[in-house]
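Reviewers of the previous submission asked for a worked example of the structure-prediction workflow described in the proposal, so we include one complete record here. The input consisted solely of the amino acid sequence. No template or homolog information was supplied to the procedure at any stage.
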Amino acid sequence: MKLNKIKMSMAVLLTAVLPFSNLWAEDRSSQNQDAEHRLSEMQNAYRKSNFELYFVKQSIATAEPISFSHGVVDNRQYSHWLYLNGVPMGYFSAEEIIAYFRAGSQPELVERGVPPFLIGRFNTVSLDKVYSNYVPVSVGRNRIAGRNVFMIRLSPKKNDRYGYVLYIDEITKILLQADVVNPTDGQMVESYMATHFVNTSEPNKIIQKINEAYLNDPVIIEMTSRGHDVSDSGEGEAAVTDTGKNKRAEEVRKLGWGLSYVPSGYELVKIERNSITDQNSEAEHLLYTDGLSDLSVYRIKALEGSEYPVVKQGITNLFRYRADPYEIVVVGDIPVETEKKIAESYSVPGNN
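From that input alone, the workflow returned the following structure tokens.
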């Protein structure tokens, strides 16, 4: 009799609880769908809008004021990013060409490049790629730089990379702010904190000048018209094709060493060897990206008596690992625990 009463009580409890569990699951699914809708709106708005955004890139130790402009002329997209303190430097983009500049130096042009900063990447990255590595959830509303915003949290599916909180303007759908958060405790590590936003009907003067340069610069015209083969570009997300993957896999085999662990979703987009003249040796470099963050792995000749510290600057970490006669250096916008795991997975075939 007592057993029957217990079974009956459990049945009543389950009957009471299960509907709420289903409601919670449905609500969670609704939040995911709403977040995906907001992100799609954000990218569509970016492609069509003219605006100026001022913000501060802030981490524990530094705060850098930055201006960012975006504009569209005759269906061509342009952008301009400028650090406002110190020597004028930054980049501008014209369609799929990015030019890095610094006062007193010639700009460096990169074909089919990806924006080098987080806000630019969120506006251009493949959302399918984002969803394969992160879970998007709508988490409410807030007020940023005097404007009402939707908040979207992107939580990594594994704690091997940072998470993000995005602040999207309710009216224009433009991304105004992005926070980078620790995957384990949710604490903010770095933020692109918006301070001022202006949405305009026409591109500003900077964007108009970039458009003039784009139409008249013979180097840019030649780069645009020659139909560059992305499988050989070695730059950015566009470079990750099946042909490119096969070619890079063969190049990695030729290196004679490898990594047994790289976080899922990070694809190899570049392999290079550079000479180190003062050491009379080479540095071998592998570059990976998941579309939002990059990580680099270097193999260099170990220096006698050198220490192997962890170096941290905002979300960028550097981890050094000794594997005689080399050292493996991992640097990127990922947690140092992940970098340590990558470095320690280094191996040379036949030496295990």
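The chain has two domains: 25-228, 237-347. We consider this example representative of the routine output the project will generate in years two and three.
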